[in-house]
Amino acid sequence: MVKQIFSLLLILVSVPFLAAENNVSVDMELYDTVYRTRNSSFDIFWAYGITGNGVISFKSTGNKNVRADIVTDITFPDSSGIPVILLKKAYVKARFPSFRVTLGKTRLGWGEGFVFNSGDVIFGSTSPYVDLTGTEIRSETAWITSIKYPIGRFSFLEGIIKIPDPINSGFGEIADTSAGVRLYTKAGSIKIEAGYYIDGEDKTYDISSTATIENISIVAFHRPYISLQGNIGPDWYINSSAAIPTGESIYTELIVKDTFSISFGLFHMIEAGYNNSVTFRIETSVLPYLNWNEKNGNPGSYAILIYPEVSLNMGSAINLSIRSIISPLELSAQVTSGFSWNLFEGFNLISFATINGGDGNDTFSWNKSSWDPASDIIDGISVMTGIKYIY
Question: How large a percentage of the chain has pLDDT more than 90?
Fold first, then answer.
C-alpha cells in the first residue's frame, strides 16, 4: 500500500515536467476542528484535532480541440485516522467538427440545482445529508463515455454510457451498464432539458417510508426527467423525475410514488455598495408521496426540504455566508455559517460553524437517539478554523 501511494505521488509530481503545456494547481485546506461527539460508551465529550484536504489538478492547455484533466483528492484524516487518496477525475474531452466526446471519470450536470436537483438522475441530488462547507456540494463522479451532438445554435443531443461497478480487475457485468440520452434546447428565453436514463445497477430498494415492505430487489430503473430554467429578475429553475422499475412488479406503483420528486430554485445577486454584492439562493425538494405528518415519518423520509443561502461578498477579500437545510415538517435543521478572508493571493483564512437543531429522531438533531461510533462522528455541533491556499 505504501509503495502504491509513493508511486502515485511520484507520477503526479513528474507530470508537469513531462509535458510543458500543462496547468498544475494545488488546492489545500487545513483546519483546527472542534466538535461534539460520543465515545464507545455513548458518553458525550468534545473532541479536537486537525483535518485537511488537498486537491491536485493537472489540466492540459496546449490544444484548443482537446481538454484533459486529472484530479486527485487527498483527505486527512478519515474516521480511521489514515490519509485517503482518491482519483476524483480523469477525463479527456475532444471537439470534432460535428460532435464532442468525453471519456473518463467525471461528472455530468444534468438538470439544474446547487443542492437539490431532481433532474440529476445519474448521481442523485435529493439527499439532505451533505457537507455545506464545500464550494461544490454535489461532487460525485463516475466512469462515463459521453457523445454530444449539436443540433442548433442553442440545442444539442447527448448520449452517455456509465460503466457498472467493478467486481474484478476494474470490470463489471455488462448487464449492469447504465445509459441515457438528453435533449437540451431553448424556447424563447426558457432553457428546456429532457432526458431518459436507465440505471442498470442491481440494487436493494427500501420503500418503508411509504409502505411496510422493505428491501425489494430491483434489477434496473427507468429514470425519465425534465428540467426548465429561465429568468424573472432572479434566475429560476425547476426539475422533476421518477424511478420506474424495469419488468413487472406488484410494487411498481409504490416505488414510482416513493421516487417522484420535484425541485425548484431561485438565485439572485444584487449590488450592495461599491464593489460589494449579496447573493440569495433558495431551493426546495418535494417528494409529494412521502410523509407530510411528523408522527408518521422517519429521518430523511419527509415530503419537503428547503435550502436557503445568503452570501455577502465585500470586495474581493471578505465573504460571509449562511447556509441551511431545513426539514419544516418536523422542525429540524442544519445551519452552517462561513467566513473567508483573502489575505494574500491564493491564501484565505476560513472558518465554519455547523449546528444541528431538532429532536433525537429527526433528520437533524442535537442529541441523536441512536448512535453508531463506527460511522457517526459529529453530534450536534462542529467548528472549523483554518486556511485555504491555492497555488
Answer: 54
pLDDT band at 233 (very low <50, low <70, confident <90, very high): very high
Phi, psi of 188 (to 5 degrees): 70, -125
Long-range CB contact pairs, 175-181, < 8 A, 24+: 175/200, 176/200, 176/201, 176/202, 178/122, 180/121, 180/122, 180/223, 181/157
pTM greater than 0.85 (yes/no): yes
Phi and psi at residue 12, to the nearest 5°: -65, -40
> Letter for the amino acid at 374?
A
Distance (Å, whole) CA 366 – CA 354: 11
CA distance 378 to 279: 29
Task: Collapse the DSSP code of 306 into the 3-class scheme (helix H, G, I; strand E, B; otherwise coil) and give the result.
Answer: strand
Cis peptide before 299 (omega within 30 of 0): no
Phi first, then psi: give them for residue 62, nearest 5 degrees.
-90, -10
Query: How many other C-beta atoms can be found within 10 angstroms of the C-beta atom of residue 175?
Result: 10
Cell matching residue 162: 456509465
Extract the C-alpha cell encoding 34: 472542534
Residues whose CB is less than 8 angstroms from the CB of residue 133 and which lie 6 or more positions away in sequence, other chains included? 336, 338, 352, 354, 384
> Within a 10 A sphere around the Cβ of 181, how many other Cβ atoms?
14
DSSP codes, 145-193: EEEEEEEETTEEEEEEEEPPPP-BTTB--GGG-EEEEEEEEEETTEEEE
> How confident is the model over 283-306, as a mean pLDDT?
85
**Is 361 buried (19+), middle (13-18) or exposed (0-12) by CB count in 10 A?**
middle
Spell out the long-range contacts of 170-176 with Cβ–Cβ below 8 A and sequence spacing 24 or more.
Answer: 175/200, 176/200, 176/201, 176/202
All residues at 6 or more sequence positions from 1 whose CB lies less than 8 Å from its CB, including other chains? none
